[in-house]
């Protein structure tokens, strides 16, 4: 693959949401020059005020050695890379795309092949850790791609991640591992909501639930992270309900293709769909507890 001649240490990040914004700032702190783009112009203006580059997308793409894509799904990833204003055809050969959305493994392999036609490296690099760790540059990244892709991506990986799992020499393996993670994460959030509200029917307050279960064998990282949102009655979306119909839907699509039964995942998905149907899609995913509360006639903290 052709060596790139673009400006050393210049990166673009697409998607300045709760995860992407923290990642973009982590890139800046590492000493990289960084341009940030998002469909929300306020997010772009905010990042430029923080020191982000101010050029238009085309000019920034021609300068960049690294493009990170931190958007919602496969459709948005493909639009950023190969849409009407897609970035890949503008990039210098030898540059790298680091794709961080939760997508099916087959899609990641498709994007890798499409990037190869332009002599662009592609790193399949889903992320985990939440907005707080994104802001601290302490994410876990489940990555797969060629050694050349890893080498080109290294400055950005070092800036944004505490742990980089190198899972294989071609795209797809990173996304497969992310699907496993999302299966567990979604199930654990739904299980937290079920357990917390079940406890309420037995006189266990949400406050005591968190204080006790977080120190017992039934705990999980998701329980310890999300149950306090319910206790506070604060559903400010750090990760929204709407994420889970997409992510658990991807898990079940993969499972169906593998002829693998995943009934617990399917049950969790139904609870997130119910929450979205109640109009809670834009709330924090801990709001799935409201589905259980409604069905049981319970009043959660912060509710009248």
Descriptive overview:
The longest helix has 29 residues. The chain contains 13 helices and 8 strands. Helix 4 links the parallel strand 3 and strand 4. It has 304 residues and is an alpha/beta fold. The strands form 2 sheets. The chain has a 5-stranded parallel β-sheet, with helices on both faces. Strands 6-7-8 form a 3-stranded mixed β-sheet.
Describe, in short, the structure shown.
With 304 residues, this protein is an alpha/beta fold.
Largest sheet: 5 strands, parallel
Stretches where pLDDT is under 50 for at least 5 consecutive residues are 1-5
Structural class: alpha/beta
- Strands in their spatial order, largest beta sheet: 2-1-3-4-5
Distance between the termini: 62 Å
> What is the H-and-E element order?
EHEHHEHEHEEHEHEHHHHHH
For the record, the count of structural domains works out to 2
Query: Do you know the CATH architecture of the largest domain?
Result: 3-Layer(aba) Sandwich
In terms of DSSP E residues, the strand content is: 5-15%
Radius of gyration: 20 Å
Summed up, the helix count is 13
In the CATH scheme, the class of the largest domain would be Alpha Beta
Topology:
Blueprint: E1 10-14, H1 18-29, E2 33-37, H2 41-49, H3 57-63, E3 66-69, H4 74-82, E4 96-99, H5 105-116, E5 121-124, E6 127-128, H6 130-136, E7 139-143, H7 147-160, E8 161-166, H8 173-201, H9 206-213, H10 221-232, H11 243-257, H12 263-277, H13 289-296
Parallel strand pairs: 1-2, 1-3, 3-4, 4-5, 7-8
Antiparallel strand pairs: 6-7
Helix pairs in contact: 1-6, 1-7, 8-10, 8-11, 8-12, 8-13, 11-12
